[in-house]
Design goal:
The complex is a heterodimer of chains A (410) and B (311). Chain A is mostly helical and 410 residues long. In chain A, 66% of the residues lie in helices and 5% in strands. Chain A has two domains: 102 residues, D-Maltodextrin-Binding Protein, domain 2, CATH 3.40.190; 208 residues, no CATH class. Chain A has a four-stranded mixed beta sheet, with helices on both faces. In chain A, a hairpin with a 6-residue loop joins β3 and β4. Chain B contains ten helices and 13 strands.
């Protein structure tokens, strides 16, 4: 058996052991279902917050103090204008109130009304309305101004008001827009960051098991430490792939059950390399991001000898991940800039930034270079981690308790 | 030779742990590496196996200059025993075989056979954490032979075993030798070395102090005579060798004279002292060991610079 095949077999043996030892445990179910638990808690919290917000929205009002003959035209203008808002973005409902003496004083009193929660009050003539508003509701004040103008226009034009009937058509041209590419790029960077944030940090404590159980010498005697490290990395990558596959399948199924309109959030996504290659590159860069960051965490975590040290390492690990995300997100917003080049070349941010690059640029050859570059760094980091481990662990230990030479101890 | 080492040396920090050790382990033999604690035995074995690299010197393992190249033909039981606690005994043995190139299916089959032969068949599907320390140690030993290695390296294999399991281990070592394997083991328990070893090396202070057979080692010390006269009298001291010392009773102990015991006995009988008892005691390996490494080194625990990995 040649050296490469033997190394491969040894690496896969370690990977298999780690994969099985991780997956065939009850704890893994908790890990696998963690997103569902998080989503459940978020949903419960969200429902509570939505309930509070809805009850507040029911009472929220913007108020126009206008003569009774203007109440109806204002309501009609409001209805027309309100149609352009997305759900949840529209100003509070409009209420009209008859003037009662000093309109300015009446307006101030309305803010203290008990039966409604008033944020904006308009009074005075529609040609020069005075609008009182709390600091947060400047845009609602603008809106009331527009409603006033629309009402005046209705009254001035009456039946002569021109009727416009727009014809809307969807065009594919939007798919090649810069906005669509940016959206794809940000999706790629955030997607890889999100997955690696959850998954690559898992490898940090994997060498602790071997150290605590003293299995490491058995492994080190049979298998080069580089293979031990790479095997552990691949084993945990297998766990990550299982996790992503499981949730990918569930999200895919749930997605197909959602109404067609729900997909509009992603409708503008238009990666420059095309959908198919983009998906493949996303998977490849996720793998690279996992292996690169995982190799760093494995190498650093292997030097820690206690769980406390490993726990202490979690914070810098997360900071590194967030820093790589921040650098890459900034880079994809400025494709071709020096910042983008730095992010694409720096090994730990390269997978994130290059995934964004795939969304922004149609060329495929840079990805071949980038993947080779990243693989080189994976092997370099694994080798350095293994050497540091060998130097730090596989040498000597403290003095032991006395042990005397025994005569015929058997 | 199954194993050769020439001038192996290793320094950890400011401590020279191994300092120019030479070894030659014949194929098919049982070879012991003896030494007091901290002598450099474990570091020597680790260098031979390629777990750590020597600072100086060369070694061959089963004819290979790079120990890794012989990895699949070597079995190793480290001093610090270690198994995955959540693994079942049979899986643990198959895993260790898989690390050495044995396919999992064959590994499981052989693991079952080995466990049965060792009287641990009932524990095949037990998790390691549920086994006693001695049983777990035997499982690890079986894991080191499951791929039928040409060379079996055992670091302090008897430590921590009760007498029954020590006997099982001795039987296993002999069975492996009979199968044709070379066994290289380190120990500081002389009785095992005396019973098992065809050849041995004694290491102390990182240097090899002796290499040869057990008889060669014993021969480094002269035999001792224990003589008890039939009719004790003070004048007997004029006939006995100068180093003769009372045994606390009527008897005397002294080194066997270089010319033999016969002429002395004739003189004692002629003088009328007679012989109530006479025995010639060959020195044991322990005595030879103590003489070779020095009493202080043999009995002092020493600063153990290299016997374990940092946890």
């Amino acid at each position: 058996m040649n050296c490469f095949r033997r190394r491969l077999r040894q690496t896969l043996t370690i990977a298999r052991r780690d994969f099985v030892a991780t997956v065939y445990t009850p704890i893994f179910l908790v890990f696998l279902l963690a997103p569902a638990l998080m989503a459940s808690f978020s949903a419960i919290g969200g429902m509570g917050a939505a309930s509070v917000a809805a009850s507040g929205r029911d009472k929220a009002r913007i108020v126009a103090i206008v003569p009774p003959e203007l109440a109806r035209p204002m309501a009609e203008a409001d209805k027309r204008l309100r149609a352009v808002f997305r759900q949840g973005e529209a100003p509070a409902a409009l209420a009209t109130v008859k003037p009662n003496g000093d309109a300015a004083a009446q307006a101030r009193q309305l803010f203290a009304a008990k039966d409604m929660d008033v944020s904006v009050v308009m009074f005075g003539p529609l040609t020069r309305p005075h609008i009182l508003h709390t600091s947060r509701y400047s845009r609602s004040a603008d809106y009331l101004g527009v409603v006033a103008a629309e009402t005046l226009a209705d009254r001035a034009l009456g039946r002569n008001r021109p009727e416009v009937q727009p014809v809307k058509m969807v065009t594919d041209a939007a798919r090649q827009s810069r906005g669509g590419r940016n959206q794809s790029a940000l999706f790629a960077v955030f997607g890889i960051f999100f997955l690696t944030l959850f998954l690559s940090g898992q490898v940090i404590g994997t060498m602790a098991e071997e150290r605590n159980n003293k299995v490491i010498e058995v492994l080190a005697a049979a298998v080069p430490l580089e293979s031990v490290f790479l095997g552990k990395l691949l084993g945990m990558f297998g766990v990550a792939v299982l996790f992503v596959g499981f949730w990918g399948a569930i999200v895919g199924k749930l997605g197909s059950l959602l109404p067609a309109g729900a997909a509009t959030a992603f409708a503008d996504m238009a990666p420059a390399v095309g959908g198919g290659p983009f998906a493949l590159l996303f998977a490849a860069y996720f793998a690279m991001a996992y292996l690169l960051l995982g190799a760093v965490f494995l190498g650093v975590g292997a030097q820690a000898s206690t769980m406390r040290e490993i726990q202490l390492l979690s914070l810098p690990v997360t900071i590194v991940q967030v820093a790589m995300f921040g650098l890459s997100a900034a880079a994809v917003a400025q494709p071709g800039s020096w910042l983008a080049i730095v992010a694409e070349v720096f090994p730990l941010s390269s997978p994130f930034a290059m995934a964004g690059h795939a969304a922004n640029s149609p060329d495929l050859w840079p990805h071949a270079l980038a993947l080779a570059w990243q693989l080189l760094w994976v092997s370099l980091i694994v080798t350095l981690g293994a050497r540091a481990f060998r130097r730090g662990v596989l040498q000597s230990g403290p003095a032991r308790p006395k042990r005397r030479v025994k005569r015929g101890a058997a | 030779m199954a194993v050769t080492a020439t001038g192996l040396a290793k320094r950890f920090g400011d401590r020279q742990v191994v300092d120019g050790v030479d070894l030659s382990v014949p194929r098919g033999s049982i070879y012991g590496v003896l030494g007091p604690n901290g002598a450099g035995k474990t570091t020597t074995l680790r260098m031979l196996l390629g777990i750590i690299e020597p600072d100086r010197g060369a070694r061959t393992l089963l004819g290979e200059a790079h120990p890794r190249d012989a990895g699949d033909r070597v079995g190793y039981l480290p001093e610090e025993r270690g198994l995955y606690p959540a693994m079942k005994a049979r899986e643990a043995i198959a895993f260790m075989g898989a690390l050495r190139g044995l396919d999992w299916r064959t590994g499981r089959l052989r693991a079952g056979e080995l466990l049965d032969a060792a009287g641990l068949g009932h524990a095949a599907t037990e998790k390691i954490r549920k086994l006693s320390k001695g049983m777990a140690q035997l499982v690890q030993l079986l894991g080191s032979v499951v791929h039928r290695p040409d060379l079996l390296v055992l670091d302090e294999p008897f430590s921590g075993l009760d007498p029954v399991n020590q006997e099982k281990l001795e039987s296993l070592i002999l069975a492996e030798r009979d199968r044709g394997a070379t066994i290289l083991f380190s120990t500081h328990i002389m009785a095992h070395a005396e019973r098992l070893c065809d050849r041995l090396a004694i290491i102390a202070g990182g240097k090899r102090r002796f290499e040869g057979t057990v008889d060669d080692a014993r021969a480094t010390l002269p035999s001792r005579v224990h003589y008890r006269p039939q009719r004790p009298a003070p004048a007997i001291t004029t006939l006995l060798p100068a180093d003769a010392a009372s045994d606390g009773g009527d008897g005397w102990r002294f080194q066997l004279p270089a010319e033999g015991i016969e002429s002395l006995l004739v003189r004692l009988i002629d003088a009328g002292h007679g012989i109530a008892g006479l025995s010639i005691e060959r020195p044991g390996l322990h005595d030879a060991f103590v003489r070779i490494v020095g009493r202080d080194a043999a009995e002092a625990p020493a600063a153990r610079p290299n016997a374990e990995m940092r946890p």
